[in-house]
Amino acid sequence: MKRNIGCPCGKTFSVETSEEIDLDMYPEQIERITDGSFMNFVCPGCGKIHKPEYPVILSWPSKKATIEFLPELDRGEFYRRKKDPPGAETVIGYPELSDRISIIRDGLEPAALESIKYYILLKAEENYPDAEINIRYQGKGPEAIEFHLHGIRDDEVAVTRVPLSLYDKTLADFAKHPKGELFVSLRTRSYLSVQNMLRPDALK
Ligand SMILES: [Zn+2]
């Protein structure tokens, strides 16, 4: 699909974007999503890098995953819409997209990860009630899963490590009680995210 990007330098340029990408066929896109260069477009006039968010369906047959990516600007629209693409899991905004792709790549269960994120955020908000805190999955080591917390202090990232044993316990919990209260609250239709626990009442 052809799209136009307007740059503050005055130049408008058009770019070609895909509406659907197969990540098995284009594995370099996995790297680009996780390193943040996915859908970067350089203005031919001044060299500025633009990072617009365009909706796209990412299919990943080898992981049995189909991900619908929606721009952050469409978050409200998602909660209002009546129909989701069949068989797809929705993520909203680039940070969530990068998290989810990394989590699937690392062979982890997204529902367990989102519930661990929720407990970490709950604790962080208790300690820093005035901060607007975001949590990002950082990676899996031999003994722990690492998360980064943004927003506790300006320009500072707090690192939190959760032992793999806690992940295993959460995963077993999810396998046994997939309809448990927390797991159900983390999901709105096709959208599984800790954001569902935090969203403003106006969107409910
Ligand atoms: Zn420009």
Summarize the structure.
32% of the residues lie in helices and 28% in strands. It is α+β, with helices and mostly antiparallel strands. The longest helix is centred in the middle third of the chain and has 18 residues.
Notes on the protein architecture:
With 204 residues, the protein is α+β, with helices and mostly antiparallel strands. Helices cover 32% and strands 28% of the residues. The protein has seven helices and 13 strands. The model has no long low-confidence stretch (mean pLDDT 94). Zinc ion is lined by residues 7, 9, 11, 43, 45-46, 48. The site of zinc ion has 7 residues, from loops.
Rg, alpha carbons: 18 Å
* Average pLDDT reading: 94
Q: What does the overall shape look like?
A: globular
Order of helices and strands: EEEHEEEEHEHHEEEHHEEH
Low-confidence residue ranges:
none
Tally of DSSP helical segments: 7
Q: How would a crystallographer describe the biggest sheet? A: 4 strands, mixed
List the defining traits of the structure above.
binds zinc ion, 28% strand, single chain, alpha+beta, 32% helix, 204 residues, 3-stranded antiparallel sheet, globular, 4-stranded mixed sheet, 7 helices
How are the elements arranged and paired?
Blueprint: E1 2-6, E2 12-16, E3 20-22, H1 28-35, E4 41-42, E5 49-50, E6 56-60, E7 65-70, H2 75-80, E8 89-92, H3 94-105, H4 110-127, E9 134-140, E10 144-150, E11 157-163, H5 164-176, H6 181-185, E12 187-188, E13 191-192, H7 195-198
Parallel strand pairs: 3-6, 7-8
Antiparallel strand pairs: 1-2, 4-5, 6-7, 9-10, 10-11, 12-13
